[in-house]
Amino acid sequence: MNKFFSDNVIEALNFINQFKNKIFVIKIGGTQISDEKIFTSICSNIKTLYSIGINIVLVHGGGKEISKRLLKVGIKSEFINGYRITSENHISEIEMILSGKINKDITLKLNNIGVTSVGLNGKDGGMISCSKKSLINDIDIGMVGEIDGLNLNLIRLLLKERIIPIISPIGFNKNGETFNINADQVAGSIASELKSEKLILLTDVDGYYKNINDKDSFVSKLNLDEVEKILNDNKLNGGMYPKLECCYKSVSSTRKTAHIINGNVKDSLLIEVLSYGGIGTMIYI
Amino acid sequence: MNKFFSDNVIEALNFINQFKNKIFVIKIGGTQISDEKIFTSICSNIKTLYSIGINIVLVHGGGKEISKRLLKVGIKSEFINGYRITSENHISEIEMILSGKINKDITLKLNNIGVTSVGLNGKDGGMISCSKKSLINDIDIGMVGEIDGLNLNLIRLLLKERIIPIISPIGFNKNGETFNINADQVAGSIASELKSEKLILLTDVDGYYKNINDKDSFVSKLNLDEVEKILNDNKLNGGMYPKLECCYKSVSSTRKTAHIINGNVKDSLLIEVLSYGGIGTMIYI
Amino acid sequence: MNKFFSDNVIEALNFINQFKNKIFVIKIGGTQISDEKIFTSICSNIKTLYSIGINIVLVHGGGKEISKRLLKVGIKSEFINGYRITSENHISEIEMILSGKINKDITLKLNNIGVTSVGLNGKDGGMISCSKKSLINDIDIGMVGEIDGLNLNLIRLLLKERIIPIISPIGFNKNGETFNINADQVAGSIASELKSEKLILLTDVDGYYKNINDKDSFVSKLNLDEVEKILNDNKLNGGMYPKLECCYKSVSSTRKTAHIINGNVKDSLLIEVLSYGGIGTMIYI
Amino acid sequence: MNKFFSDNVIEALNFINQFKNKIFVIKIGGTQISDEKIFTSICSNIKTLYSIGINIVLVHGGGKEISKRLLKVGIKSEFINGYRITSENHISEIEMILSGKINKDITLKLNNIGVTSVGLNGKDGGMISCSKKSLINDIDIGMVGEIDGLNLNLIRLLLKERIIPIISPIGFNKNGETFNINADQVAGSIASELKSEKLILLTDVDGYYKNINDKDSFVSKLNLDEVEKILNDNKLNGGMYPKLECCYKSVSSTRKTAHIINGNVKDSLLIEVLSYGGIGTMIYI
Amino acid sequence: MNKFFSDNVIEALNFINQFKNKIFVIKIGGTQISDEKIFTSICSNIKTLYSIGINIVLVHGGGKEISKRLLKVGIKSEFINGYRITSENHISEIEMILSGKINKDITLKLNNIGVTSVGLNGKDGGMISCSKKSLINDIDIGMVGEIDGLNLNLIRLLLKERIIPIISPIGFNKNGETFNINADQVAGSIASELKSEKLILLTDVDGYYKNINDKDSFVSKLNLDEVEKILNDNKLNGGMYPKLECCYKSVSSTRKTAHIINGNVKDSLLIEVLSYGGIGTMIYI
Amino acid sequence: MNKFFSDNVIEALNFINQFKNKIFVIKIGGTQISDEKIFTSICSNIKTLYSIGINIVLVHGGGKEISKRLLKVGIKSEFINGYRITSENHISEIEMILSGKINKDITLKLNNIGVTSVGLNGKDGGMISCSKKSLINDIDIGMVGEIDGLNLNLIRLLLKERIIPIISPIGFNKNGETFNINADQVAGSIASELKSEKLILLTDVDGYYKNINDKDSFVSKLNLDEVEKILNDNKLNGGMYPKLECCYKSVSSTRKTAHIINGNVKDSLLIEVLSYGGIGTMIYI
């Protein structure tokens, strides 16, 4: 046993030394937040990464929670190409759920296990300025935002003090309007701007399969050329396409790596980051 | 005209030099936020104070807005001694309105006029830890919090960087519960802890009148002994009592001043702070 | 009244914030120094500017005082083109009056009202090196100096410590000779070298009039092209020409502004600097 | 496997975070240095500890090597109570072997695997001042030194720069004499003076056995009281007594821990330091 | 010769190392300033001391020059107990000569040989505040000042930048009056306040003789007890008494040394400071 | 005498000020170390140079001592072109003598007179990496090293802390082999790399004579062109050729000076460095 012990430790140490003081942008999805056990385990992994000196920016989504709550006030959710149609009356409901509920739940959880955190949305410090997304198939999808610019001074300040910023995907414009943004895109853009060491998307699937029906076709590593080819082939199922696209853009800019991993598997975050083999799909340059 | 010009400027300069790099804790009420014109004017005054080097912490309430919104989801508001009875199902609605709506509206407004601001609640950075308020007249008023402790590291960090923290009156405990807190009390406690130069409560009235029906009985300055006597006399109308009490506690701790002013009067904030005469009621040691 | 109060203050604050930590080079003339009341008022204005964080270099003249004192030791003053004919025996008398009398009077006055000041002449710290001015109309005007070089290390050191240097217009050369220099030229050269925000010449007139006999022809602002034209037209009365020329040179170098104002009007310094309208003539780029 | 991986890593991380920037004083014996394979493995363990931010001071012995080399120049080694009788002619031979051969071998080895090291003895920077040890059983054991004082400025300087000092057990006095010192004592004294986190003695045995003949009587942890009792019982075999005594003194001073471990077991250093169970005997307060 | 060379250098080096970064307050008298050759040589010695890192404060007198110049404007000098009777009309003449003539001559000289210097009097930076000296033998000696307080912030600032302050013995009070002060007293008080390493009075005599008529009675060193006895004996000639008294006060405060040396002997300053034997009389604790 | 005193001191001060904080690389030969009196005097000179702020790197040889000691273990020394034939069995003997004996003797001596020193060889901090010198006249001269690269981080660190590094001429390669190097070459290379102010070779001769038999043909100064001509003429006796060559290379790189002086003459180091005339031969650009 001792042999494995020191081998495992020496393996992990390679990464620990390499990643110290580096920035990871981690996106956590609605599914992971709603399941108390999974959520607790992910927070514990975040604490471990934090404790070895990694600077973490956490971006969260909240799709299911939003749909559930909107129903409560009598609003039925509709989507086009994965974008939620967001009328002007809905946006403030959505902001309240994301920034006034989910965001503060995560913040409280992390602070209570000893990881200093601050819950923010894209308005804080003028972080995420947006414009309205254009029509999709001639349909106005409402207050869905396209990111125009990022001001990450506040994020940099917090990271320097070893505080984790937790960010809801809400943006603004100079006219005082509020926008709902795709959380993967927020995470990817922030990773690009910060030139972060890793972008990690916690999802409900293991990563990329060549053939979604063949468990043996799992792919651990994809370089940018391979990702480009997959995107062009355009045979992907709905969920994986935008995630690979997001990773592609981010890695093109950071020249580092992005990771799609299954957030529902225990310790997947640690194993992906600290072992040679990893557990999900890594996109590299 | 020139004569008045230089006299006014020289008068204001006395205060400008005195208050530079000092901290003001300002509490803004629901009324001021809902009236667009008043709100815009107060934000402009805050910008002026910020521009002369005053470090501002802004605490906001939101009573009316909360009641209105709760009604929308079918909840009727009830109060005892001015405290909102807050059942466990209501608290997350209240937090969403305060921290996900009002707070972010103010944040966006200030950022958009060039004053870097960050919207927070008491969970951020583990800022305001609470316990449940005890029964009032044998009635359990629910998730209303009593402030147990303040961790203002985050606030100090932001002030040092000239960023205005905007704080919703929401607290937490170590069990992960959320509490609604009186906003005046939050402002007063933060002022005490920061030993702030001024605590300023923006209200709907001019300040303290000896006789509420006699416009000529207005009082510009009260020292702590006078306030103590007024509180003991217990002849005050509902609203003024807790405000005077809050100022009393804060000034006892800071050994500086507290101010109750009419937020609805144009430039009241500037005139109170930068002229000898002031406009509201000042409580001093 | 309150309305004007906050309007005036907000107007002045624009300038206060703009000029903080900037350098003003102010030249004060003999007339202002000899009149006790005017002198006291100017010192008070300087204190106000100093208190809002402006770094001031004060240059003084002393024409009348010199003439009066020289008479006492039996010397009659003669001028050519505004330059005092300065024989070798006279120069040490002149230096004594400027640097041992007027300079120290100002220094004492400012220190005694709480503005830390140091009286210097161009020999201190090797500040102003000169050569002898060439003949004017074939006449040797003696020990009148042309500025060859400035070493402002000492001035920068004092300004950094918030000490006002007060400078007599006396220069030196490497042979150990002493020179009398025109005070406006000293102020202008220092302003150029320091790239000062403002050069301000306190004079006995209001500023520039298109027609000296027509009070309504006063001009508040002149750009460099306009000044150039006026200088070329060469219709100016004796006193204004060299002042405009001095401002022209300085503004050409600093790319900021120069001001000719009436030092005998109460608070003219404050009004010129802190109001939109100003009171004298401003030369800008 | 992944499960064990993250468990092992999380276990080790506890210690990694705890020991970062702390000082370990490690004593390596002659046996470990002479066996190429063991020596290489220990150097690799040192590199791992160094890489996680532990500041290491390495003290070495060299008994066997000295005896062997002395024989070459015709000198036979004699010992009393474990102290080598060191005539004045021998001391310079001993210093040459320790500081000119063994010390530089270790230095070269560590530098060549990327761990910046500097070989020193107690004369460098006036580090270890000694006096002559008193007679043992009326016999003068020669130039064997008792440590009088330590000047660790040089060691602190090197540690601050992340350089490992490697120290031969040689001291000096103000008369210019050279002394041979017991290496365990040098390590223990330095640990005491630096208030080091750990003193680790790499030996040829597993640690402390209650009964040396009973493999099951191994003791993993001893507190100071237990060590004191063992020392007073005085039933220990020759080698273990001075080592326990050395650990006792050091822990009494540092209020931290000392460790006796088997340097011949692979990765014993890593396992002792980074796992809860450890592998040798730990002495604690 | 080489032998003497290295002996002399090693002797001087002892003092050079000892005095580096220390402060010397040197008082130079009128006689030394008027003789061009002596003055040049002293300036050269000052440059040498400056170049080895000694921080120098130079105080000057100017008795003879003042008398000569006063005569020019028709004023005859009168003295009581060594104090110049200074009517209110005379004081501004005296200040002009000291601060506008002698002071600037020294400043120019030192700057021109590469020693950065600034000429000051006691008004600069509010340095020397005074009150009027009381009657001597019932005679009002006029504007002669007694030092009340020293503000040496400016001096410390200049010394830190390696600039030599050159100080005229002129003081002020809060009413704006100007006072003439004894230069030895100015030097002594500054030395006390700065806890300077040395106070050095350059005079016209070699130092202290037990018997003024016996060249062999010269005394190189006096401790404070001896000086006290000499002062009490009161047999000293006029000039030496106040100088010894001044040294006595200064050394009592600084716990360092004071020196009375003959400024007219070539290199006396260097020899006194850098050799064991010295050349004048040293007062020590 | 006083006259000479101040002249000598002023002469030396020119150099003292010039050389403060500069680096001197001094090579001391075996002869100087073996003679106790000479060695003591050189150490005292080093202390003087150190005390005036010169940063010294000391390189030592040890030829005679090595030969003597090798004989003791039965090895006879052989040389080709001045290089010691160094079989693999001999190199560790040589390293022990140089780094374990001579180096530590010098270190102890300097520390004991108050000059903080550290004894090193080329393995420490990975300082001197070597390759094997090629055959000379077809003869393999063994483990004699050619310097490939220098890593002087450790040296720079020590100099910054005012610690003198004392260096034995031993190098290493990445295979873990040890090499003997010519000490003059070590000194010269370090001087080049550090761009040291002076390289000083202490030898047994006065410097360079045009005609070795004519005492009057001594040459105090040689520029690089002259040295090049002498080297090309190739008429030099054995010892002087490599020394001049070494100085030539070093000065070509540093653009400063190198000095060959007689280490056996008292205070030769001081006289060469601190007087205009010097005592040995200086090579300059």
Automatic annotation (TrEMBL), chains A, B, C, D, E, F:
Sorted alphabetically, the keyword list is: Amino-acid biosynthesis, Arginine biosynthesis, ATP-binding, Cytoplasm, Kinase, Nucleotide-binding, Transferase
Question: Where does this protein reside within or beyond the cell?
Answer: Cytoplasm
Q: In which pathway does it act?
A: Amino-acid biosynthesis; L-arginine biosynthesis; N(2)-acetyl-L-ornithine from L-glutamate: step 2/4
Where, in this chain's numbering, is substrate bound? 62-63, 84, 180
Q: What is its EC number?
A: 2.7.2.8
Listed GO molecular functions? Answer: acetylglutamate kinase activity; ATP binding
Question: What are the annotated GO cellular component locations?
Answer: cytoplasm
This protein's record includes keyword Kinase: yes
Task: Give the HAMAP family listed for this entry.
Answer: ArgB
Question: Which family does the entry's similarity section mention?
Answer: Belongs to the acetylglutamate kinase family. ArgB subfamily.
What name does the UniProt record give this protein?
A: Acetylglutamate kinase
Which gene name does the record give? Answer: argB
